[in-house]
């Protein structure tokens, strides 16, 4: 099979030819139909994360080894199964839940494989969708998509699930009654905006430094789109919210500047949900956290149960697909470079 792999960090993806795997046990082999190119893939390609204060977390320290075919937003067609695989049919299209754990630890046994301390995430720790085939360890991680478009469905495995889980942490009682703030208007930001609307939300104010992405957010129904580089960004958020501080901020960037804006615009007792992995050190005074009774919550993708809940909404037609641009698998390196340079609006998807 053909796959485009990270061979060396910060160098071009390389085409690698490997034997197509034969599934064993409960494994399922799928022919890849679509694979989203996510900003998280850039962190893998870059080789690590900025922790602030001059510190950096390398992927080696995180247990990620090369060569690696990235791609954790994958839709494929079942072509073969191991003798113990059940619950899927050859020839049908499925979206893959990639956040697979060891299936033995407390987190996994409680249904939170995305919190596993020995993860086996597809496209992160195991080869993913930047390939013409992918092996999934068990059919339980496959969700039937029926006649949905593979290219617009693939992003639900990360951008959809990640923002759905972040909204769950905000709580429906909050986002259905009060506008929230979404930091970042890339693929995740636009997806989060759609999920707010799909679940009867009161609206969202979007913040981004890119005017093209701000316009995309307005076109998608944002109440306001604010320049994150503006020195009075927090004040503009409060003004857009009718002069009131906001109940919740979902930060899909995770930079010192965005967390500061969020911190400065949240009401006493509000929530700051940090999703993005841009990196850096926290800029806010610690004493203000208890003084303002703030909840600062990290959110990492989502659970298999949440994925099933999300896909029920999608199959019911309640979630409008975000803008996607389609590319051949052979364009994987060029697409990743475009994302690196901030040239992608919505989601870029490799298709077959």
TrEMBL record:
GO molecular function: alcohol dehydrogenase (NAD+) activity; zinc ion binding
UniProt keywords, alphabetically: Metal-binding, Oxidoreductase, Zinc
Pfam family, one: ADH_N
InterPro entries: ADH-like_C (IPR013149), ADH-like_N (IPR013154), ADH_Zn_CS (IPR002328), ER (IPR020843), GroES-like_sf (IPR011032), NAD(P)-bd_dom_sf (IPR036291)
Family of this protein: Belongs to the zinc-containing alcohol dehydrogenase family.
Gene3D superfamilies: Medium-chain alcohol dehydrogenases, catalytic domain (3.90.180.10), NAD(P)-binding Rossmann-like Domain (3.40.50.720)
Domain of life assignment: Bacteria
Organism taxonomic ancestry: Bacteria, Pseudomonadati, Pseudomonadota, Betaproteobacteria, Burkholderiales
Co-factor(s): Zn(2+)
Keyword Oxidoreductase: yes
Organism, as annotated: Jezberella montanilacus
Chain ranges of the Enoyl reductase (ER) domain: 10-350
GO cellular component, one term: cytoplasm
UniProt key word Hydrolase: no
Listed EC numbers: 1.1.1.1
Protein name (record): alcohol dehydrogenase
């Amino acid at each position: 099979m053909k796959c485009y792999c990270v061979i060396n960090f910060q160098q071009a993806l390389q085409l690698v030819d490997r034997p197509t795997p034969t599934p064993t046990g409960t494994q399922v082999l799928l022919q890849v139909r679509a694979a989203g190119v996510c900003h998280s893939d850039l962190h893998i390609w870059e080789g690590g994360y900025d922790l602030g204060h001059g510190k950096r977390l390398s992927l080696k320290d995180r247990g990620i080894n090369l060569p690696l075919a990235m791609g954790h937003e994958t839709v494929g067609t079942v072509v073969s199964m191991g003798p113990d695989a059940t619950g899927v049919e050859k020839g049908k299209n499925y979206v893959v839940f990639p956040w697979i754990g060891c299936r033995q630890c407390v987190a996994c046994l409680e249904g939170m494989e995305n919190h596993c301390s020995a993860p086996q995430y597809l496209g992160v720790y195991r080869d993913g969708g930047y390939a013409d085939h992918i092996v999934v360890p068990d059919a339980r991680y496959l969700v039937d998509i029926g006649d949905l478009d593979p290219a617009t469905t693939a992003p639900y495995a990360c951008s959809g699930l990640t923002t759905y889980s972040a909204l769950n942490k905000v709580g429906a009682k909050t986002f259905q009654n009060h506008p929230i703030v979404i930091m970042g208007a890339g693929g995740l930001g636009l997806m989060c905006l759609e999920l707010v609307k799909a679940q009867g939300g009161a609206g969202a104010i979007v913040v981004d430094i890119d005017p093209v992405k701000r316009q995309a957010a307005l076109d998608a129904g944002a109440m306001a789109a604010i320049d994150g580089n503006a020195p009075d960004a927090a004040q503009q958020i409060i003004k857009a919210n009718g002069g009131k501080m906001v109940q919740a901020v979902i930060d899909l960037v995770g930079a010192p500047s965005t967390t500061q804006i969020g911190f400065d615009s949240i009401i006493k007792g509000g929530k700051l949900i940090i999703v993005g992995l841009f990196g850096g050190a926290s800029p806010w005074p610690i004493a203000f956290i208890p003084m303002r009774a703030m909840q600062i919550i990290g959110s990492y993708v989502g659970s298999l149960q949440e994925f099933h809940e999300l896909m029920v909404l999608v199959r019911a037609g309640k979630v409008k697909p975000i803008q996607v641009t389609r590319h051949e698998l052979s364009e994987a390196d060029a697409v990743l470079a475009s994302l690196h340079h901030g040239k992608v609006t919505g989601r870029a998807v490799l298709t077959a």
